[in-house]
Amino acid sequence: MVATVLALLAAPAAQLIEDYPRLRGDVQAHYVSSYDRSGGNDDGFDGTYSALYVDERGEHVIFDAKGPGTLYNLWFTSRVNGRSPLGWGRIKFYFDDEEIPRVDMEADELFSGRHPPFEPPFVYHAFESTGGYVSYLPFPFGKRLKITTERRVGFYNAYYHTYAPDHVTESWTGDEDMSALERMWTRVGAPPAGRAGSETFSGRVSLDAPAMPDGDPVPSQTPVFEHSGAGTITSLRFNPLFPLTAYQMQHIVLRIFWDGATTPAVEAPLGSFFGSGLGEASVRAVPLGMSPSGPYYCYLPMPFWRGARIELVNENPDEIAEIWWEVTVGSNDAAEAETGTFHALYRREWPTTQGVDYRLLETEGRGVYVGQVMTVEPLRAEIKRWWEGDLRIFVDGQTYPAFSGTGHEDEYLGGWSNEWLMNPYSLPMHGEPKTTELQQVDFQWSAATTVYRFFVGGIPFQNGIQVATEHGAENTANAMYSSVAYYYARAGSMEKLDEIGAESVESSPRGSRFTLRVPPGVSHLRLRRLYHPAERQEAEVWIDGGRAGIWYSAAVNSFVPELDRDFLLPGSTSSAGSEIDREIQFEIRTSTPNWSELRYELWGIR
Q1: For the chain, is the Cβ count within 10 Å smaller at the N or the C terminus?
Q2: With contact defined as beta carbons under 8 Å apart, do 415 and 155 qualify?
Q3: Is the pTM of this model over 0.90?
Q4: Rounded to an integer, what distance in angstroms lies between the CA atom of residue 21 and that of residue 342?
Q5: What is the 3-state secondary structure (H, E, C) of 98-155?
Q6: Closest by CA position to 125, among listed 137, 138, 139, 109
Q7: CB-CB contact of 435 with 422 (8 Å)
Q8: Distance CA 191, CA 297 (A)
């Protein structure tokens, strides 16, 4: 089996766009950052949590993952301000336990754009991604990737995927052909290549003013497009032929229904859906965008099997003049059971609740989370520092976030609130396209802002996902938040099949042994371990007498009493071929004396 990353390097459009709807049980998404493990706001100011550990060379390890995977995204900001150099020396990339790093250069030079392959459009300087030093150059690794820095960094984060241990992944060399991905990212906004048999439909609609029976307004619903049978919407575009105000854009609601459903899978204001909750802006992202002088576009694939229906709902007090629309429909040969339907969920809290995270999305079932557009409008300029709120993403019912962020400007890959708010930017997968009402309060600036971020490859989930963020450190700064979460989903979920407590595990000099039972017709198996994360831990996992792979965690958190994390079983073990109950024998051969095990659970998808 060839790893997902090889498809990325050979055909990046498939990975970034076409592949989003596919439900993947053999991929996990991860995030490592300098977030304050104690739950406070020391997210990089003092560098307290800005390294996983210091290795035998005296180098600061900021990333360390074993097994096949791909690092998709790496971000830093200066510890001084949003304009200063990084200033912490050399950065090194070690692959597959090699003694000599394949990358060894000054960090500021790596992000300068002068050294191929670290060049635009894969690398952004702090003046391009305001305050943020960003790399989107994909780094596949077959056995291990370890990244170190010469001196301790400040704020940083990294986003990556790991695969089932039998995926074949060729480690990065720097000689990969990135021309197709480069063309996509430099031609942002251009429609994707059409599928076989694609057909484009277009027209114009005017939206009536709401009816007023008994004095209460009833929003008008205007049909835009309807299609029977199977297909995939590959391009959705609108262009208001008369200028719309920010209020009007937020009160024209886009609704999309799939396969005869009466509840819309997409229900969001036109402005927020296409990238800006503050009125028209220049949004130039690969998945979607808008222009004050051109069409709004969405190129995220939208597969359906029995039909699609699109409508616009006018919640404005007056009629809306003509809006041009265009829909391109291509073929759909995807297996419905293994493909998600497209969803866009709009939420808002005006204002947020003191002490409670703002929740962008909470959903059950299987799916892939693509990303979000979020708008923040302060109640008053002096109620600031809402940007200190940290992103938290919980995946598959785990008790601790799989993603822990360090603040809004960091999660949207900028840096330092003053520079960030004063200098909007729009880049292929992240941006802050617009700020309004910029005001100086003491030594800081405050403003309303709209931001977006999309995750390369998406964040797969098997029985649910929750995407939330603080508003201010520990949710102490209330503001008006709104958002659109983009994701693919399908009913059904991963189930817990069996479990065993530590007291029932058979101990041996090399580790531990136990047996778990699998019912018939189950695939995509994974072993979940509940453990104490006080130290780095590593073990070999053996299944039915054969070595399956390495279970390794470099993350340490002494403030959390226990974590639960998953090990993906190889495809040969995970296939749904058995028609009877079967037993799987596990042996955990520990490589470190501090291996912790409180409970093991076996999960799978029927």
Answers
A1: N
A2: yes
A3: yes
A4: 7
A5: CCCCCEEEEHHHHCCCCECCECCCCEEEEEEECCEEEECCCEEECCEEEEEECCCCCC
A6: 109
A7: yes
A8: 9
Q: How far apart are CA 35 and CA 514, in angstroms?
A: 35
Q: Which CATH architecture has domain 199-330?
A: Sandwich (2.60)
Neighbours of 438 (CB within 10 A): 13
CA-wise closest residue to 573 among 26, 162, 144, 70 = 26
Fill in the amino acid letter for 495.
E
Nearest-angstrom CA–CA distance, 327 and 305: 17
Label residue 131 left, alpha or beta by phi (over 0 means left) and psi (-120 to 50 means alpha).
left
Question: Is residue 10 within 8 Å of residue 133, measured between CB atoms?
Answer: no
Say how far apart CA 536 and CA 557 lie, in whole Å.
9
Sequence-distant (6+) residues with CB within 8 A of 107 are: 76, 86, 88, 89, 90, 91, 133, 149
Domain at 494-605: CATH code = 2.60.120.260
CATH ID of 4-191+342-490, from 3.60.110.10, 3.40.366.10, 3.90.550.10, 2.60.120.1390: 2.60.120.1390
pLDDT, tens digit (0-9, with 9 covering 90-100), for 551-563: 999 999 999 999 9
Helix (H), strand (E), coil (C) string for 355-392: CCCEEEEEECCEEEEEEEEEEEEECCCCCCCHHHCCEE
Are the CB atoms for 184 and 13 separated by under 8 Å? yes
- Round to whole Å and give the CA distance between 84 and 131: 8
- In the 8-state DSSP scheme, what is residue 56? T
Domain ranges (residues) in the chain: 4-191+342-490, 199-330, 494-605
Of the chain, the percentage scoring pLDDT greater than 90 comes to 86
Tens digits of residue pLDDT in 350-384: 999 999 999 999 999 999 999 999 999 999 999 99
CB environment 184-194: b (16+ within 10 A), e (fewer): bbeebbeebee
Q: Which residue has the tokens 């909007």?
A: 424
